[in-house]
């Protein structure tokens, strides 16, 4: 596997998976992490404490305590049905849309508990954007798709909209491909472009955190590479939390990795360490492909 | 394992099912095609001039008319021909003649077919003109002379009679719609003031009395004017009517026909394709723009077309927004539970209620309850005089009744269309901080709009063809277009004509079923065309929406 990331990649380590590439240390000034201890995150943006989640009587998430470092990319990995998407959806309260979901515990975003019923979820979702597994462009023009979040927030001035749409599309590495047909329907684009429209749409409202729920699983390898490059470019400006099935992807794009299994957090740590020296047996089994 | 026998293989491969479904499709299609074929064949040919035959029978009588059909009596084996001989004042307009008694049949080139204002067609040959009103030339062909005379009489009519008729109509309108109701109102007020025990000399009563007296004087004056105008009008018309053309029928009887009565004439035996086509065009134009005459057997259908289209639009304007909002509530807001399921079942079953029941409901609910209450508040004097405004059938209540009838279709299709939108699209919107309402308005409703349009098309087609509820809620045999120059110009409180009801009326309630048959086909064809064009517009809109909101790979 070869990535086109601009940052230098390190040679792959032989243990435990041969083809996983190690990531460089975070390159954002002022943010450093201690690779030896997962607990030592200095400036967490989101802190999940003793989070339990129930679908009716089923406990889908079990006592998850996890801090997400600011401006880094954190990957959530684990086998299907382990609760990683569910956990992700707790972070912008998307689970509110599903009947019969109940949580206990606390998730703090910059010290504010976002599980609080009185919290303004609209405000929360503006701060915590999300990109889904299947790209879901709205049946509008490319321009209107990207401007959607701004328009619903009440931005009317054309100059402002124009500027933000262009900036967002540039950041989503889509500007050059669509600049001449901004006012064509977004539905006419390809699958990979759809997903980048969705990313541009999420960026446009200037969130602090971007949640990505398997953003590449419906895409071909080329589009996947472009999205991964994009994640690399967004690092440092945004906190990105990405759920992925693909361990190579997790290793390629993330600074930190959390391994979930059957609703519980098994292990969390810097990506290179978790993939090279997993401390738990389950993690090792999973990343070496013994199950999952 | 392969089935051993050929028959087993036959059944296994599902061959019979393919055949059965194919046959079912073919059957339904052919039934539709036959229906359309019958309507088209009979409807399109009505206005095409057919040749006029003159036949001489064994007993010496002669007939002049259009040969319509041939029939063999299954018992006797006798072949008979049906002729349309017109000339209703002299006998039946249609004659069956046994083929064996026909001695001679030919097509006289000079035969005229006159379309008249009364008594339907006249078949005969032109003899002479008698025009005391002006000098008419004796030169030229019969057609030239008749043309000149018809033009002259029309000129005179337009100059002399028409202004009087207009004046008279204006006075009558003033009397009927303004003064009459003002007097009713004043009388009502006076009666109630007195009943309340006011002293007779109380200021208000005195003022009312004075007002009423003024109105009555006004009425008297207008009535006199109207009578004078009417008398003058009938005199002028009678004068004009003295200008006649004399025709002779096949039997040799001469008959003066007032030029004023002749709408148009044809000489089918002399007409080429071009003039036949021109006649056809003129008849179609008349059909689309003129009022009916001869108790709906002839003339145009403009009021019925207008009524049908207006009713469909009013229906759409009420049922579509309501149905969409109800569908959105059911699909997006209502919490799933026994009550919602019950509502959904009820909505689905509403579509199965016989439409006449809707008619009865419309009569009871809209007309008697709502209309009656409205009248009791705003027009008590007219209720007392037995002339309710909204408490009687009218186009508004008919449209609302039909709206009620078609609303389930809109609700169900809206709900289905919303349900078909992938969850990802909603979540995509919510994840950007959109509220439920914003998501609904900006994303879901546009995406569901083609589906809503489907419901709308079905609703419209059903409403345009429905007759039973209309009979009880305001469709009548004969009514002017509910559009005129008095405020509020479009009158939803008027009774109206409807093409479907027109079909019922002329096919089942006409004294002369034979004569109205062509009109039935024409009306049916017209109704089909209107439904077709209304739904074509809707389908076109839907395809544009589909193109716009087409979702690929989602």
Describe this structure in words.
Chain A has 292 residues and is α/β, with parallel strands linked by helices. Chain A is built from 10 helices and 10 strands. In chain A, helix 3 (142-152) crosses helix 4 (158-171), helix 3 (142-152) packs parallel to helix 6 and helix 6 runs parallel beside helix 7. Residues 1-39 of chain A have low confidence and may be disordered. Chain B is of the alpha+beta class. In chain B, the strands form 3 sheets. In chain B, strands 4-3-2-1-5 form a 5-stranded antiparallel beta sheet, with no helix packed on it. The chains are: A alpha/beta (292), B alpha+beta (554). Chains A and B meet through helix 2, helix 3 and helix 6 of A and helix 11 and helix 12 of B.
Task: Provide keyphrases for this structure.
heterodimer; A: 292 residues; alpha/beta; 6-stranded mixed β-sheet; 4-stranded antiparallel β-sheet; 31% helix; B: 554 residues; alpha+beta; SH3 type barrels; Helix Hairpins; MetI-like fold; 5-stranded antiparallel β-sheet; flat
| Assembly level | heterodimer
End-to-end C-alpha gap of chain A = 21 Å
What is the 3D shape of chain A? Answer: globular
**Beta-strand fraction estimate of chain A:** 15-25%
Q: Helices and strands of chain A: which structural class?
A: alpha/beta
Helix/strand order of chain A? EEEHEEHEHHHHEHEHEEHH
> How many β-strand runs of chain B?
12
Low-confidence stretches of chain A: 1-39
Could you give me the name of the CATH homologous superfamily of the domain at 303-497 in chain B?
Answer: MetI-like
Global mean pLDDT of chain A: 83
* Helix amount of chain A: 25-40%
User: Major sheet of chain B, described briefly?
Assistant: 5 strands, antiparallel
Distance between the termini of chain B: 40 Å
Most extensive chain-chain interface: A-B, 31 and 25 residues
Q: Strand order within the widest sheet of chain A?
A: 6-7-8-3-9-10
CATH class of the domain at 303-497 in chain B: Mainly Alpha
Number of DSSP helical runs of chain A:
10
């Amino acid at each position: 596997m070869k990535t086109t990331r601009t940052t230098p990649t390190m040679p792959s380590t032989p243990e435990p998976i041969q083809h996983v590439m190690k990531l460089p240390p975070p390159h954002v000034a002022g943010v450093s992490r201690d690779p030896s201890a997962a607990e030592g995150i200095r400036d967490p943006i989101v802190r999940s404490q003793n989070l339990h989640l129930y679908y009716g009587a089923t406990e889908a998430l079990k006592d998850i305590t996890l801090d997400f470092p600011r401006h880094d990319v954190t990957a959530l990995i684990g086998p299907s049905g382990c609760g990683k998407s569910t956990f992700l959806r707790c972070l912008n309260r998307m689970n509110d849309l599903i009947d019969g979901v109940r949580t206990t515990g606390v998730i703090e975003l910059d010290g504010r508990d976002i599980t609080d019923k009185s919290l303004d979820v609209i405000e929360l979702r503006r701060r915590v954007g999300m990109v889904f597994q299947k790209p879901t462009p709205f049946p509008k023009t490319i321009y209107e798709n990207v401007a959607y979040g701004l328009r619903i927030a009440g931005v009317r001035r054309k100059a402002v909209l124009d500027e933000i749409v262009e900036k967002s599309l540039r950041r989503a590495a889509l500007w050059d491909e669509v600049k001449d047909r901004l006012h064509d329907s977004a539905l006419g684009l390809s699958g990979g472009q759809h997903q980048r429209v969705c990313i541009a749409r999420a960026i446009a409202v200037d969130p602090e955190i971007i949640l990505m729920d398997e953003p590449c699983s419906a895409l071909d390898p080329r589009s996947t590479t472009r999205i991964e490059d994009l994640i690399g470019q967004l690092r440092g400006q945004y906190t990105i939390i990405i759920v992925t099935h693909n361990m190579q992807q997790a290793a390629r794009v993330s600074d930190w990795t959390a391994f979930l299994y059957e609703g519980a957090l098994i292990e969390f740590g810097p990506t290179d360490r978790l993939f090279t020296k997993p401390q738990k047996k389950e993690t090792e089994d999973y990343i070496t492909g013994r199950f999952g | 394992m392969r089935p051993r026998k050929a028959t087993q293989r036959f059944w296994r491969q599902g061959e019979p099912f393919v055949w059965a479904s194919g046959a079912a499709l073919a059957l339904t299609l052919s039934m539709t095609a036959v229906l359309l074929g019958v309507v088209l064949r009979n409807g399109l040919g009505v206005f095409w001039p057919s040749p006029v035959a003159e036949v001489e029978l064994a007993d010496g009588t002669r007939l002049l008319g259009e040969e319509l059909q041939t029939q063999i009596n299954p018992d006797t084996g006798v072949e008979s021909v049906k002729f349309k001989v017109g000339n209703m004042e002299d006998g039946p307009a249609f004659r069956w003649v046994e083929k064996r008694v026909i001695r001679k049949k030919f097509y006289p080139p000079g035969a005229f077919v006159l379309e008249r204002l009364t008594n339907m067609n006249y078949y005969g040959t032109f003899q002479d003109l008698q025009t005391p009103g002006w000098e008419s030339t004796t030169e030229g062909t019969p057609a030239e002379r008749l043309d000149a005379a018809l033009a002259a009489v029309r000129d005179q009519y337009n100059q002399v009679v028409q202004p009087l008729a207009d004046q008279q109509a204006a006075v009558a309108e003033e009397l009927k719609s303004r003064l009459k109701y003002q007097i009713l109102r004043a009388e009502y007020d006076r009666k109630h003031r007195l009943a309340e025990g006011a002293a007779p000399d109380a200021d208000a009563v005195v003022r009312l009395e004075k007002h009423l007296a003024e109105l009555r004087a006004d009425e008297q004056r207008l009535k006199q004017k109207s009578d004078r105008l009417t008398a003058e009008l009938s005199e002028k018309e009678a004068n004009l009517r003295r200008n006649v053309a004399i025709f002779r029928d096949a039997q040799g009887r001469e008959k003066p026909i007032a030029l004023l009565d002749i709408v148009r004439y044809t000489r089918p035996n002399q007409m080429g394709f071009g003039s036949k086509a021109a006649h056809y065009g003129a008849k179609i134009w008349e059909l689309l723009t003129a009022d009916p005459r001869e108790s709906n057997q002839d003339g145009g259908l403009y009021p019925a077309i207008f009524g049908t289209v207006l009713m469909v639009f009013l229906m759409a304007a009420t049922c579509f927004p309501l149905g969409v909002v109800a569908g959105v509530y059911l699909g997006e807001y209502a919490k799933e539970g026994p009550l919602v399921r019950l509502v959904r079942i009820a909505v689905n079953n509403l579509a199965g209620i016989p439409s006449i029941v809707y008619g009865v409901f419309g009569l009871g609910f809209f007309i008697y309850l709502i209309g009656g209450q409205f009248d009791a508040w705003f027009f008590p004097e007219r209720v007392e005089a037995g002339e309710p405004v909204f408490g009687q059938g009218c186009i508004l209540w008919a449209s609302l009744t039909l709206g009620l009838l078609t609303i389930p279709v809109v609700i169900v299709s809206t709900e289905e269309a919303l349900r078909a939108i992938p969850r990802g699209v909603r979540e995509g919107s919510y994840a950007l901080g959109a509220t439920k309402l914003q998501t609904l308005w900006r994303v879901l409703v546009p995406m569901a709009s083609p589906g809503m349009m489907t419901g709308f098309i079905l609703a419209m087609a059903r409403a345009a063809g429905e007759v039973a509820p209309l009979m009880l809620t305001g469709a009548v045999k004969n009514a002017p277009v509910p559009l005129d120059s008095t405020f509020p110009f479009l009158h939803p409180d008027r009774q109206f004509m409807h093409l479907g009801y027109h079909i019922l009326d002329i096919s089942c309630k006409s004294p002369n079923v034979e004569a109205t048959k062509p009109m039935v086909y024409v009306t049916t064809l017209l109704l089909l065309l209107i439904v077709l064009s209304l739904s074509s517009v809707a389908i076109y809109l839907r395809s544009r929406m589909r193109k716009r909101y087409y979702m690929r790979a989602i």
